[in-house]
Specification:
By secondary structure, the chain is α+β, with helices and mostly antiparallel strands. The protein has two domains: about 250 residues, FAD/NAD(P)-binding domain, CATH 3.50.50.60; about 150 residues, no CATH class. The protein is about 35% helix and about 25% strand. The chain contains 16 helices and 18 strands. The longest helix has 16 residues. It binds flavin-adenine dinucleotide.
């Protein structure tokens, strides 16, 4: 250790999910490790994951089936996933007193349903392995000589090491500390850094009826998107109405494709509230309901036909004069128009919510510039990259955190 400078085997920059895993694993192997975190505490983003419940991974135990969810990155991930995969995540947390439960769409959560419990396990992992954790320690810059980083500068002084991990995350929810510092450094170090766009993010809509349903969620809906009026793609899943538009898994998982459509066109959509019934079957159901309630106000019969909670939107979806009359006086044309609305409620998508609402952002260093067997940079010999700093497009459902556990472990295991 030289005067005024602290030297470690490994410096990990960023105490998010992937940085903690990398630091803990390297220290477990006997390395002297310091974790530099700019916030007052580690795991600030981890604490808010999964709506406070932390969707910690996805219980797809077949490595190849799991890797398919990462699109173009699939092939690159076989090796890291073979070193630390979904089963390893289950074992890691279960062994440390935090068993996991599996919910719909194979999403795995801690049994306690509390994300701070995940952070607690990771903090204990760091402590048990002997990692020096320095909070309030923003890294301000890196010194690179040739193709090796030699030291980092913080307000608390200069820290030197033989190997470095950049685990500073992306740019989503910047209040958690992910402000894109790593992207700037890596660009300066000669890496390609794809500009981030929010990819798992809610959508803004123009229609008032959507906003009047804020808080209502519907399972198994189908949404179809149109670019300049031309059908682009459809997806099925759960949807949540919000005061600004639409959210829920169906929407979050459509957002990156919608962002692509927006580059070239105006985007509209239709929601099919009965995706498992064709027009004729739905018409039959509506006729049966009307027959059974002939003398009731049609408005009340409609409330019975619509999915739960949607009645509030009736006046805007189906004009009041029609909705106010008795059920039996509904004309055939009106009935057909109603069914058309139930099968294709129209929406104007006005945009995507920003980074402040994004669950993950894409962007960052492409995997072609990383040796994914070790997570070592192919440009800087003693640099390792983990978590959201990597450009890997993925859906919601635990796939982001599994990447953090996987890439963090592989880096910590390889240094
Ligand atoms: C609201 C929300 C909910 C989510 N829910 C889920 C979910 O349920 N399941 C799932 O799989 N994924 C979820 N994600 C995504 C997941 O949280 C991220 O993929 C993951 O946390 C990224 O971890 P990371 O280690 O790459 O970086 P981060 O967690 O972003 O951590 C980076 C750390 O680096 C620190 N840092 C940054 N710059 C510096 C610097 N200059 N010096 C020192 N420290 C620095 C930051 O303060 C931060 O603590 C969610 C994301 C959000 C925003």
């Amino acid at each position: 250790m030289s005067a005024g400078k602290t030297k470690y085997d490994v410096i990990v920059i960023g105490g998010g999910a992937s940085g903690m895993m990398a630091a803990g694993r390297a220290a477990e192997r006997g390395k002297s490790v310091v974790l530099l975190e700019k916030n007052p505490a580690v795991g600030k983003k981890l604490d808010i994951t999964g709506g406070g419940r932390c969707n910690i991974t996805n219980a797809e135990f077949d490595r190849h089936a799991f890797a398919k969810h990462y699109g173009a990155s699939e092939q690159f991930l076989y090796s890291p996933l073979s070193q630390f995969g979904v089963q390893d995540t289950f074992d890691f947390f279960t062994k440390r007193g935090l068993p996991l439960v599996v919910e719909a769409r194979k999403r795995a959560f801690p049994e306690s349903q509390k994300s701070p419990d995940v952070t607690r396990v990771m903090k204990k992992y760091l402590a048990d392995a002997g990692v020096t954790v320095l909070t309030h320690s923003a890294v301000l810059g890196l010194t690179c000589i040739g193709n090796r980083i030699t030291e980092v500068l913080t307000k608390k002084g200069v820290f030197a090491a033989d190997a470095f991990v950049i685990a500073t995350g992306g740019v989503s929810h910047p209040e958690t500390g992910s402000t894109g510092d790593g992207f700037r450094w890596l660009a300066e170090l000669g890496h390609t850094v794809h500009p981030p766009t929010p990819t798992i993010v809610p959508l803004k809509t123009a229609e008032k009826w959507v906003k009047s349903l804020a808080g209502i969620s519907l399972a198994a809906m189908k949404i179809t998107f149109f670019a300049d009026g031309k059908r682009a793609f459809s997806k099925k899943g759960g949807l949540l109405f919000t005061h600004f538009g639409l959210s829920g898994p169906l929407i979050l998982n459509s957002a990156s494709a919608v962002a692509e459509l927006f580059k070239e066109a105006d985007v509209t959509a239709t929601i099919d509230l009965y995706p498992d019934m064709d027009f004729a079957a739905l018409e039959k159901l509506v006729i049966t309901k009307i027959e059974a309630n002939k003398n009731k106000d049609f408005k009340n019969v409609l409330a019975d036909i619509l999915p739960p909670g949607m009645a509030k939107a009736i006046p805007q979806l189906f004009t009041l004069s029609e909705a106010g009359v008795k059920a039996h006086s509904l004309t055939k044309e009106e009935r057909k128009r109603l069914i058309h609305i139930l099968k294709a409620a129209p929406l104007t998508i006005t945009g995507l919510m920003g980074f402040d609402r994004a669950v993950i952002s894409d962007g960052g260093v492409p995997l072609t510039e990383v040796d994914t067997r070790t997570m070592r940079s192919l440009k800087i010999n003693n640099l390792y990259l983990t978590g959201d700093i990597l450009h890997i497009n993925r859906p919601s459902g635990g796939y982001s955190l599994q990447l953090c556990w996987t890439t963090g472990f592989v880096a910590g295991n390889s240094i």
